[in-house]
Amino acid sequence: MKIMDLTVKRRYIKLHTPFKTALRTVTEIESIDVFIHTDEGIVGKGAGAATPVITGDFASGMEEAILGPIRSVLVGKELQQFQTLLLQVQMSCIGNTSAKAAVDMALYDVYCQFHNIPLYALLGGKKEIQTDITVSVDEPLLMAKEAKSHVEKGFNTLKVKVGKSTELDLERIEAIKNVVQEDVTLRLDANQGWSPKEAVSIIREMENRNLNIEFVEQPVHAKDVRTVHLRRVLRDQEDLRSPRHLQPRQDRRRAAAHQEPALRRGVCHSQSTHVFRLLRVRRHGGRG
């Protein structure tokens, strides 16, 4: 089966509730939808969101990357060369991780349709996972109300946004802890909102108060990770977008034994292909 064309469509998705983090407040998502067309009529679909404050990618730039260098390495190619196509997408241009992620998803979609298998089967089989739901950063009582509502709907893991006004962050967490059951798991995401000194101080205070936080994601600016020594397992910084970014982290981890960055669960700011490779690198201690 041959790839005949690659097209995009820009779509705006209104949110029924504003999504608030330390970096931004989102009321609408600007999505770039990708369609891979084949000579057998099968269409693969993928999508990526423009998040310039996180990835540096704008919608117009994503469209240009997809319709330009990425399209040029795919059109006319045989889908049977799946792994080669994935690699060529990554090598087609520098950066543009959101555009590459959208095309990557579309390639996986069209490949699974061609072989009539679900994506989970291609990736190794079915396995139950437990996800979380996000509580946007806001005033403590409003966040507690939102958290309680999520728990009442059946969620028992909450990802709590913090990092906007460090003075309020402990109050936010305490307010949520006061309205949810003890067995509800709390994960924090500061979205680069703390300085290194603030991160160490607030995490130590959370431990002193026995708040039982599972982990803290993106506590400091991506470029400040070298200065942080945290005793909790930290989620990966948002500049980890390909395997080549991992080796310096392995080196820093050996020098700062208390810090252990881990992969983010999602693939919003990276490509699924790279995530699988990153997992292998982590599994083998940085050796790939």
Structure report:
With 288 residues, this protein is an alpha/beta fold. The chain has 2 domains: 3-122, Enolase-like, domain 1 (2-Layer Sandwich), CATH 3.30.390.10; 133-283, TIM Barrel. The chain has 9 helices and 8 strands. The protein has a 5-stranded parallel beta sheet, with helices on one face. Helix 6 (166-177) links the parallel strand 5 and strand 6 (185-189). Helix 1 (59-74) packs across helix 3 (97-115) and helix 5 (140-152) runs parallel beside helix 6 (166-177). The chain is elongated. The chain starts with a strand and ends in a 5-residue tail after the last helix.
Which strand-content bin applies to the residues?
A: 15-25%
> What is the third-level CATH name, the topology of the largest domain?
TIM Barrel
CATH superfamily of the largest domain: Enolase-like C-terminal domain
Number of strands: 8
Order of helices and strands: EEEHHHHEHEHEHEEHH
- Counting structural domains, the number is 2
Number of helices: 9
Task: Output the CATH class name of the largest domain.
Answer: Alpha Beta
Q: Give the mean pLDDT.
A: 83
Largest sheet: 5 strands, parallel
Radius of gyration: 20 Å
| Structural shape | elongated
